[in-house]
Amino acid sequence: MEFLLLGSLAVRRSGTLLELGGPRQRAVLTMLLLHANEAVSVAQLTEAVWDSPPVSPESNLRTYVAGLRKVLGDRLITRPGHGYQLVVEPGELDLDAFDQLVRDGENALADNDTAAAADLFGQALAKWHGIPTAELNAGPLLRAEFTRLQERRLTAVERYARTSIELGRFDDVIDRLRRESALHPLREELWAQLMVALDRSGRRGEALEAYATARRHVVEQVGVEPGARLRQLQQVILESRVPSPAALNAHRQLPMDIAEFTGREAELRRLCEPGPQTTVVISAIEGMAGVGKTKLAVRAAHRLVQRYPDVQLWADLHGFDADELPAEPSAVLEGFLRLLGVPGAQIPESLEERAALYRDRLTGKRALVLLDNAAGEDQVRPLLPGGPGCMVLITSRRTLLQLDGVKSVFLDVFTPGEALALLSRIAGEDRVQADREAAERIAELCGHLPIAVALAAKRLARRPQWTTRDLVAQLERGGGLGVRGVFDLSYQALPDHQRRLFRLLGLHPGEDVTAESAAALAGLTAHEAGDLLETLLDEHLLQQHTPGRYGLHDLLRAYAVEQVTAAEPPPARTLARRRVLDWYVHTSWQSAQRLNPQRKLEIAPPDPSVHPRTFADRDAALLWCDTERANLVAAVREAAEHDLPEHSWSLAQCLWDFFNLRKHWADWIDTHGIALAAARSVGAREAEGRMLITLGIALREVRRHDEAIEHAQQAIAIFRALGDKARQEPALNNLGIAYMAQGRVDDALACYEQSAEIARELGHTHTEAVLLNNIGLLHADAGRFDVALARYLRALEIRQEIKDPYSEAILLNNIGEVHRGLLDFPQAVSYVDRALETFRAIGDLYGQAESLDNLGLALDGLGDRRGAEKCWLESVALFEELGEPKAEEVRGRL
Description:
Belongs to the AfsR/DnrI/RedD regulatory family. It contains 41 helices and 13 strands.
């Protein structure tokens, strides 16, 4: 017999599942299994089964024991005066196997064999397949037993995490620790291990975000600060130096491996066999949709990590996505360069220059690049590394014959044996062997297509009462063979609320979905949506590359779109799309308030059922924008294409600060161009003017100055026609900056003066201070230091009134520069010192580097060469950390 306790309670005899009765009878069996081969008293069983026992529990218990004896036979014996005892033979109970593997792991640790220990702890945890309490009516004693059992499991998780981290297997544990810490948010050791794993894998920001999340849970639920270990870990991470851009900042990007991967051994061997040492190794996995190309590529990539340990990059190129245009190589390179430590401001504009910088950054590195869903050779070619020691894995539905040196691996549907192996792995070997002919028929009805076989197997696994013949009947009743029939079977078998969410996902913008955005889409709470997404993931109708984010396979996305079009009338589809776009607009608005509290954004209120996310601080807001960037760009386009123009321009303006900060120029120009067209399509003149301003700024940033000037002039004309002086003010300021970039000083000064006059008239002190600073810069560049100083000092007065430390620090540094120009070095030192102190207080590294350079120049003017050298050394270090070319200029001073 086989007794399964570590999850849903189950007993098998010769591979056949036994019927165990109702919840209370199952609770009795659970208690007996927890004390296998020991006598369990009536009093213990009573406390295990009932919170409030009946008048005569002995009678009920005799009934339950009699029911179990019909199933278990003489395994269940009566011990007169002692209670009941269940006889379990060695190797029959999964809990015993779990405990033995944990003991073996502890012994391996004692022998300093960390690798063996990690493997043993991993095998122990693989014995678990769910939460034991889910289906039982448990009394207080059984609940206490479950708590004790859960503690044993969590201890094993911590042992597994610690040993895996020691071995450098960070990807193995990060996903598991994220899940466990979410389930057990007050268990600080899980958070600590997660922070260590993230920090050591180069994901310092995520490690600090994990601490912030842990602290929030502890403070909210217990009312105290986290323990000393978590606080010390946070301090260590905070005090560690930010890695130089010459090093790799976020270089482990492979998606999660797939636990249920089956077959493809010959293809795996071919992909993993050593290639030439003098050139880049390029392997292309080719085949039809749903054949398992991505799963094979990910499995191969994880096997190859030890051969290419320095860098692992991944990108979905969307070559065959019905809802997405194929990814532009230039945009993919921008993402890779950022991951390789290149600041956004230093990423070149042209595709050729980006490709050259990318190849340079990978020179001398053993790098693995996984390019999924490639449309063709032209899309892939710029993404290839240049030197030996690198490998590229490509998946595509097309044959990539024109790539030099490519090794093609064609992936066909499963062989019958591979299809049966996957069916066995998911649904159980015993069920497949019980009726092999029916199992083969299931594989045949699925067309041996892996995605279809996996879905069918999952249906069987979740219905223990079904035989393989039952599933065959269901598939044949559905009519037709292949993937569509399996999709129909999986979809139609879902409860109504799960079916509804699945089909609505066909309306979601972008690549993936979270519980929060799905909740908005369906008008649910995030908790409800999260549960449904996990259920759909369990059903193999969703996939997951990173924890908390869910995606649809291309075939399933097309199926979801088909279902939502058929089942939801146009008004319902519009409402769902409006809700999810409301969520993105208003969550982006919340992030913009953190990124730039001074900027006032006016947007329409959201649907009452939508609950936008809020952010504790600026870092959390920035992390969300970084994570959701692809979806946010898609949402702007989605709104414009589906007759929701106000959502398009509202979201675009909310993203302006993020794009500006991260220098995502292509996304900036793309989204604001779409939003501008949307505003023009409905004659929304005020929105058109706002989009002209922000699009003009982006064009200026990429040095398209003539276009930037034209956009600013059009915006000014619109706002003058509308009589809107408040909008003329920023338009004039930005026109002045564009003129200044072209060296048209008089034109720039005229724009600044006009804008400043409007700001004073309207009482916009913040804008007046910005303009006075710009005017001061013009005069300082022209050597008119006295005039510049007067403007700066007036701007400083305003800044001190409105409490904007960042802008105040910039002004203080500028005033220091002017005093240097006037040869008043003591005053220069005084002002720049204050600037440096403020930049340090707000954590602005670039500002610190600039003011340290300026302070060094002032001290040098005073004759303090030692002080100047100290400032410049620190300035060079900071500029290098930021990847800023000015490091060379300051090094020249040294």
